[in-house]
Amino acid sequence: MPSLQDEMANVKARVDALILDTLLPSSSPVPEVDLLYRMMRDYPARPAKGLRPFFCVASCRAMGGRAEDALLTAASIELFQHWILVHDDVEDQSELRRGQPALHVKHGEALAINAGDALHAEMWKSLLRNRDLLGYEKTLRVMQEFSSMVDETTEGQHMELVWVRDGRWDLTESDYYQMCTRKTSWYTVAGPCRLGAIVAGSGERDLEKLLQFGLKLGVGFQIQDDALNLVGDPAVYGKASSDDILEGKRTLILLKLLGLASAEEKARVTSIMSRSRQEKTESEVAYVLSLMKKYGTIESAQRRAKELVDDALEILATVEWRGDAASLEALRSAARFAVERKW
Amino acid sequence: MPSLQDEMANVKARVDALILDTLLPSSSPVPEVDLLYRMMRDYPARPAKGLRPFFCVASCRAMGGRAEDALLTAASIELFQHWILVHDDVEDQSELRRGQPALHVKHGEALAINAGDALHAEMWKSLLRNRDLLGYEKTLRVMQEFSSMVDETTEGQHMELVWVRDGRWDLTESDYYQMCTRKTSWYTVAGPCRLGAIVAGSGERDLEKLLQFGLKLGVGFQIQDDALNLVGDPAVYGKASSDDILEGKRTLILLKLLGLASAEEKARVTSIMSRSRQEKTESEVAYVLSLMKKYGTIESAQRRAKELVDDALEILATVEWRGDAASLEALRSAARFAVERKW
Known about the structure:
Two copies of one chain form a homodimer.
Chain A: H1 4-23, H2 31-40, H3 51-62, H4 67-91, E1 96-97, E2 100-101, H5 103-107, H6 109-128, H7 130-165, H8 173-200, H9 204-231, H10 234-237, H11 243-247, H12 252-260, H13 263-274, H14 282-294, H15 297-316, H16 325-340
């Protein structure tokens, strides 16, 4: 029996082949346009886990659908991830993406923003191709779901950007969940699982349950991502270590620290976190990290992530699955992987 | 009989009401999200000509369709214009849009890029609403056309950005037409006219003619835009005068100048044009403008624009119109307005 990682790699390979061989333009006789195409293919060609397309395909199969019918939709989910990362990297002034320079670092911000827009449009174009596979009605229902997914994601990204821009530190864990369910949960878990189920023909009752499952698990995924950013091995994880401290991100780990630290520590942490990436010294980043370790907020956030996945799996058990048991088990494994992974 | 300007204003008012009252979200109890919604409504609330939605509705009626059936599509064309302008203004570092500060000047680049993405998604969401009005098949056909339109526009924008980034001045008029047909013609004339015709049920033969009509007229429109940028009244036109010189834009007017100027003048012009906005002095901008006047390249470009509209109108006459003659006449008037307007 193939391992979860093998199954994920298998779906990812099929989806990537679809994206690079069929969905994205490959070359143009106009040299400038050829550069645009190469920029559009840059992030899609970088290695990644493929958790999102896996959720989509596994959910479709667990619901009784065929993997082939979910592939275009899964590829469109990856395209969504690619274009939004191109823009996020500009917005957050991130320097690395999956171990390589971010697209705007290589080509400048103006070209990167425009290439992100071009990729965004390819996502919808790819969804239009569902027509021959899924028929008119389901094609439009899938697009409706993408529309919700983009709405939620841009709202979550906006919330986080405003907090950084306005130097907001008076944030509760509830604020964090509001931001994180929008910014991460929707497009990482809820959307992919619901889309797989929509392709398989699920009704609204199960879709609502998959939404609740996905919102919880997505927050768990983000917490683990934030933890890996601080204590993960950069060679395995692929991002600069402690990048979130440099970017001033309001993670659950940081908010928990602000709730536990002394007034003096809190003042120093928020003063450091409020400065721009360039103004932060290595020892200041190390200081923030040492306090997180002193107060154990990385571990307490990870415990919260484990509770969230347990809650999520309970909800998953109430869905009326009509497909094969192995796919449902793969979905459960992927859910646990999301909060236990090292990369 | 209502004037062209009255008819344009009428369509624009109906489309704007649809966008602001129905299509865009208006408020949120979450203060951060409420700010996002206000940002998304910013450009749509600024006054504009509404040439694009007018082309769409007039083309639909001239082809025998109903104006009501084209309104959602026309509103989506306006949404396209809004999101792409938000991003273009960041990419070109423009400071003003329609006489007011650009969105990124008001809120910072990160929030503006993200708000542009949110608006982009609203365009597709709005197109999904066509389902009940036009049925499944036509809804998807309209979306396919939008997909082509975004592809072409991002390619044209990319070409222009690369020229600026790489300091390219060895450009021919043919390079300019390649860039301009992609960047401007598709979404200003070709797309809107074809979309109106698609809503009315046109076949591919007429759509191909409308493409040729639109590509030519769109270049004429852009030439007039470039001329107004140099010699238009900022109070009427709404943009900072000579902004294109400050941005280093490769307009037909400038390329014609480079073809006529002495070697010494050419060297000085390209040296000035290659500098960033901040590094250009007022007298340097005035020098470039004075050479354009000395060699008459504003007038010769405008003569080219008039030839293009004449060619375009000849093509328009070969389309098999099946609707009312008044709408066809309005379409012709709008075509002439595109290259004769003062704003």
